[in-house]
């Protein structure tokens, strides 16, 4: 089967880049484009005809749910996964009614993202070999797409507190020149070891990148960038 082509619609370019990196870690997928607004997204979806769209909800020029319905009406061979900070029940209901195959709340945990894309790939592989189905096969196809892994299988690992993690993300967001583990520890009031553990976890899931920088004297230091 050919690679599944993903189009990312996300107003924050940094988050779009994280989504792209996450996607490229999973075999069988390729990112065919990125849009940061809904107007451009409609044009690009028409040109690219992607298999799957990763779609946010909040945009300066409209609502991602409206684009979801537009895709359902105009491009019925394109599926949609919502990736958003929106936690309102009515948003989730609208996404389900609009045919979204999943709804992932930011900040994204890579294991959760990977689980969704692996299930979708399995679904595409299975359905591509079928012409007619019985009830058992239909049930299996629906389970393949919609059955969720137990939350414990993709929870943040032991030793990583979600509140502290969010605090660190918000802090380094403003560090345009990057930050070291020692500097971060001093600024938020934790040990260098603790700050490094969080930073390295964020590197492992693609939230930040790390680079070695060389000063005029001493050993190179590891700096972290959002």
TrEMBL record:
One function term, GO molecular function aspect: DNA binding
Keyword Plastid included in the entry's annotation: no
Segments forming domain Response regulatory: 5-121
SUPFAM superfamilies in alphabetical order: CheY-like
UniProt keyword terms in alphabetical order: Activator, Cytoplasm, DNA-binding, Phosphoprotein, Transcription, Transcription regulation, Two-component regulatory system
Record-linked Pfam families: HTH_64, Response_reg
A Gene Ontology cellular-component term: cytoplasm
Family annotation (InterPro entries): 2C-system_Tx_regulators (IPR051271), CheY-like_superfamily (IPR011006), DpiA-like_HTH (IPR048714), Sig_transdc_resp-reg_cit/mal (IPR024187), Sig_transdc_resp-reg_receiver (IPR001789)
Protein name stated in the entry: Transcriptional regulatory protein
Lineage: Bacteria, Bacillati, Bacillota, Bacilli, Bacillales
């Amino acid at each position: 089967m050919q690679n599944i082509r993903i189009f990312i619609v996300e107003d924050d370019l940094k988050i779009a880049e994280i989504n792209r990196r996450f996607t490229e870690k999973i075999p069988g997928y390729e990112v065919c484009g990125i849009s940061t607004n809904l107007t451009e997204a409609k044009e690009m979806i028409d040109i690219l005809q992607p298999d799957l769209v990763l779609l946010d909800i909040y945009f300066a020029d409209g609502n991602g749910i409206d684009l979801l319905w537009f895709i359902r009406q105009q491009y019925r061979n394109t599926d949609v996964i919502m990736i958003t900070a929106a936690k309102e029940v009515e948003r989730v209901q609208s996404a389900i009614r609009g045919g979204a195959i999943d709804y992932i709340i930011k900040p994204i945990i890579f294991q959760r993202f990977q689980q969704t894309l692996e299930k979708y790939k399995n679904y595409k592989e299975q359905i591509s070999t079928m012409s007619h189905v019985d009830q058992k096969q239909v049930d299996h196809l629906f389970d393949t797409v919609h059955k969720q892994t137990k939350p414990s299988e993709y929870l943040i690992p032991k030793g990583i507190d979600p509140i502290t993690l969010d605090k660190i993300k918000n802090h380094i967001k403003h560090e345009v020149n990057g930050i070291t583990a020692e500097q971060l520890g001093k600024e938020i009031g934790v040990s260098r070891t603790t700050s490094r553990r969080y930073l390295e976890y964020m590197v492992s899931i693609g939230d930040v990148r790390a680079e070695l920088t060389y000063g005029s004297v001493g050993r190179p230091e590891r700096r972290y960038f959002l």
